[in-house]
Amino acid sequence: MSEGLKSVEFGLEKIFEGAQDFLPILGTDYVEFYVGNAKQAAHYYKTAFGFQSDAYAGLETGLKDRASYVVKQDKIRLVLTTALNSDSPIGEHVKKHGDGVKVIALWVEDARKSFEETTKRGAKVYMEPTVTSDEFGEMVQSGIYGYGETVFVFTERKNYNGIFMPGYVKWESDYNPEPVGLKYIDHMVGNVGWNQMNVWVKWFEDVMGFVNFLSFDDTQIHTEYSALMSKVMANGNGRIKFPINEPAEGNKRSQIEEYLDFYEGEGVQHLAVSTDDIIKTVTEMKKRGVEFLSQPPQAYYDEVPHRLGKHLSHFKEDIKELHKLGIMIDADEDGYLLQIFTKPVEDRPTLFYEIIQRMGAKGFGAGNFKALFESIEREQEKRGTL
Ligand code: FE2
């Protein structure tokens, strides 16, 4: 495909017809983080992000080497896992990368077939198909390596009725902060190294049967200082979207380079989570201590009516209120979207979150890239990493 923004004017359905159906995916099953202290991380996601206690595995359930807390909000399930001794690949992962995403688990009908189809197309094996069972039934999982040390795990749960997976017990807690309205994972972005974007685009096409439906080059994504390139890969039903970023040459160090330096490799840059009421969600998250990037300048908000174009007539939100919270607005052919980005949620400037409310738009806020990156660069400046 040629460079440049692939217009959505063809209709996404048509584009997705190009995707292969050898790997049907029902949805995102869970995202597992390897962290330094899972107990405290789970508390943070409950308190600040409104996740609910769901399941637990650790010493009390017979594990000797790790503890895992599962937290849930609507369709989003996060697993926070930590090592219980120094001789652990989990600990090694944390030592190298800091807290970060290890597993992107995809919910499939048939984990054995998913494994077979992807490995015969060149995927590197992470986990052979493995059956686990308890009194609630059995689950099958398999896995392949993706970018960096990140892995994709295929999860088949059609014969399982338990809370999460065999080996986990229900996590009952007396501390249950209210949800903040996060509903599902809209997309998950990976940062890859220099000249690696097209390698991974091809990997997603060949191994996973995904299609590249949007591309942005460095002439579109740049500021005075830095630039990046991005391509969005999607599966056959268009529900699973993995944009891939690569740094591009600029005057100063781009945020992608900063990530690669501090994560010490390729990995997940951000999780975009959807809400139906971004004003309410963000107001609540701020109250609970989540830090967001600084708001774009007044000039940005002055431009909003122009940017909305034909969608201005059904634009429901109060621009003043969006400005106050620092929420950004973008529009495409099909509608508009509202989005905002947190600061990194670890001390290393690596993974962060995007909160997104789609009002018909199917893009990723390309019109906001410049304002967003300028605001990231203000943070980089403070860190001395620009
Ligand atoms: Fe995003």
How far apart, in Å, are the first and last alpha carbons? Answer: 32 Å
Q: Report the average pLDDT across residues.
A: 92
Overall 3D shape:
globular
The portion of residues assigned to helices is 25-40%
Report the structural category.
Answer: alpha+beta
- This entry's quaternary arrangement is single chain
Could you state the CATH homologous superfamily of the largest domain? 2,3-Dihydroxybiphenyl 1,2-Dioxygenase, domain 1
Level-2 CATH architecture of the largest domain: Roll
Poorly predicted segments? 1-11
Helices and strands, in order, run as: HEHEEEHEHEEEEEHEEEHEHHHHEEEH
Number of domains: 2
Strand content: 25-35%
Determine and state the CATH class of the largest domain.
Answer: Alpha Beta
* Rg: 20 Å
List keywords for this structure.
single chain, 386 residues, alpha+beta, 2,3-Dihydroxybiphenyl 1,2-Dioxygenase, domain 1, 8-stranded mixed beta sheet, 11 helices, 17 strands, 25% helix, disordered N terminus
What do these coordinates show?
- The chain is an alpha+beta fold and 386 residues long.
- The chain folds into two domains: 12-18 and 180-383, Roll (2,3-Dihydroxybiphenyl 1,2-Dioxygenase, domain 1), CATH 3.10.180.10; 27-170, 2,3-Dihydroxybiphenyl 1,2-Dioxygenase, domain 1.
- 25% of the residues lie in helices and 33% in strands.
- It has eleven helices and 17 strands.
- The strands form two sheets. Strands 6-7-8-5-1-4-3-2-9 form a nine-stranded mixed beta sheet.
- The radius of gyration is 20 Å and the shape is globular.
- 49% of the residues are buried.
- Bound molecules: fe (ii) ion.
- Residues 187, 189, 270, 272, 354, 364 line the site of fe (ii) ion.
